[in-house]
Amino acid sequence: MTYLGLALVFVAGAAALAVVAAVARRPGRRWWAATAAVAAALLVLTAVFDSLMILADLFRYDEAALAGARIWLAPVEDLAWPVAAVLLLPALWELLGGHEDVADERTQR
Q: What is the pTM of this model?
């Protein structure tokens, strides 16, 4: 399996869970804006630090298993992991009722 194929499996699963959370919980604009801001920050950080680690020769990829496109030195497949995290973690938070727990905690003080 290629790196891209493996990454797509995880992103597809995370995206499916994010859709379920969006339909079930109907998060507001603030939630979407925060999620987008975190996604942008993680994508930039991933591109920069993966490139620096590749430049330092800390690890190498099998070129035959890569899609070929790169952002600086980082293969685009590396960007799938922060995307999956940004989709998965807030969706789990919403589905497990984390948002309600925080609201309830504030009203009890």
A: 0.79
